[in-house]
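Changelog excerpt

This revision adds worked examples to the README so contributors can see how folded entries look when concatenated. The first example is reproduced verbatim below.
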Amino acid sequence: MIYLDHFSTTPCDPAVLETMLPWFAQDFGNPHSVHEPGLAAAAAVEQARESVARLVGAEAREIVFTSGATEANNLAIKGAARHAARMGNLRRRIITIATEHKCVLESVRDLAAEGFEPVILGVDREGQVDPGALREALQVPTLLVSIMAANNETGVVQDLATLAPIVKGQGALLHVDMAQMAAKCPVSLDGIDLASFSAHKMYGPKGIGALYVRRRPRVRLAPLFSGGGQERDLRSGTLPTPLIAGFGKAADIARERLEEDAIRLEMLRDDLWKQLQENLPGVEQNGAGAPRLPGGLNLSLPEGVKALDVLKWLPDVAISTGSACSAAEVTPSYVLMAMGLSPEKASRCLRLSVGRSTSKPDIDRAARSLIAAVRACQQP
């Protein structure tokens, strides 16, 4: 199997697995207990917190562990809104972008039932939001803006260096979903109040993520659920020491390999695109005119070729469609349609993403298989 779906999830790095294993059985103490096993677990948690903070340029005490980026996004958006409302803040507008992850879009929409005003901004054909449209939307006093750093389908990177000052200039909080970008590109938290991260996107374990919560000036959130007050009273529940230790190790490895990985993944991605472009007339890249993450390639196949049909010819290549699939139907990707693709064209899209274990022979074999599959689907 050639695995080309690293935007979906990455395999655990062997060093990450090795780091986690002792904390499952040998060193199993509860990190909130004051005896020796508990203190050892607590120390491992804090070491990992330091590692995650170093990767993203934060202070360790600004990192709150969660079950993943979905929970972090919910905590950031709903937590900020609810705390502000309790404090008598009259701002009710919450702005986000049409190509955001579902958990962001649904979090923003859910708050309408609590009296907030969701505003969903469109994007251009490259998947980027217009700074002018954001500036105009901010003319109404706004509580929070949520913008994804890099898209999980296309890899398109938003221009946060331009957008963040616009948001801050209007006194709104800025939340950034960095789940896809962290460990693939350098990240900056300048002008950002809240940022979400996920371990399994960076060769760490599933089930653990983090939320950056700016300390100065302090950002305040209402917790999503009640409990023992762990994680600065923001996220109650016993911390999963093995997963957190793995997250920390993954962050350390990512920091050491960041530049090396980016150069290599971009080279492999471009090689794959070159082979497909030369052999498949009519194939196009989505978002190619915008800055993108290294390693990601979102394709529109030639007319008449459905992505789902192509996948049936590729049992040995793990890639995904640009759509949300179920056994009964394919729903065209809302991300691609927000970029102006028709439902028919969106149904012809594939997402391919290379990773650390991807080799040049993998690229060559995957290209041959994909070319053959498309040609087979073009036969009458």
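The second example, added in the same revision:
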Amino acid sequence: MAHPSQLGLQDAASPLMEELLHFHDHALMIVLLISTMVLYIIIAMVTAKFTDKLILDSQEIEVIWTVLPAIVLIMIAMPSLRLLYMMDEVNVPQMTVKALGHQWYWTYEYTDYEDLEFDAYMLATSDLTPGQFRLLEADHRLVVPAITPIRMLVTAEDVLHAWALPALGVKVDAIPGRLNQTAFIAERPGVFYGQCSEICGANHSFMPIVLESTSLDHFVHWSAVMSEDN
């Protein structure tokens, strides 16, 4: 999760988020170089003592400031298109989970299990235990096995919502009457936090997303217990 005074993005917990971080650094370095060059040119022009007023045009400069921006755009566009295809690709998922957005909570259905379904409400501040995070904890966590391709089906029952987990590089719109899908792989065990990222009404900021990535043995035990409770 994010922490106070954080300057960068959250640490990556999935291969997709690692690629997004690399692209962010790549684009940021290009922006830094361009900004430095433009600042240098401005300073050089302002501080120059001599000006040749007879120069009306320069074919060489015209070529340079046409070709260089084209090269820069290609350097940004190619990895960007690659990332877009990676984000849309779903490769042989080993588990499918459906997230259904409501005002203002989430319902999760494990489509590979008959009786595994539950609602996830935000924990009130008075119910938090030491170490839990205000506005981010839910009474039921979405539990998935680590290092396993997971497919998420996302939709909504009433209004627009968005299912987002920054550490996994996932953000999917939840639209009533439509199923959107995405996929992710949690590279390590842990607890990852997100929130609804579409303004959905008065309690929009009170429907958190909590995903717990565990070992396969722990997930099998948890799923068995949850199925019995349902």
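Reviewer comment on example two: The beta strands are 95-102, 105-110, 117-120, 142-145, 150-156, 161-165, 170-174, 180-184, 190-195, 208-214. The helical segments are 15-47, 59-88, 216-229.
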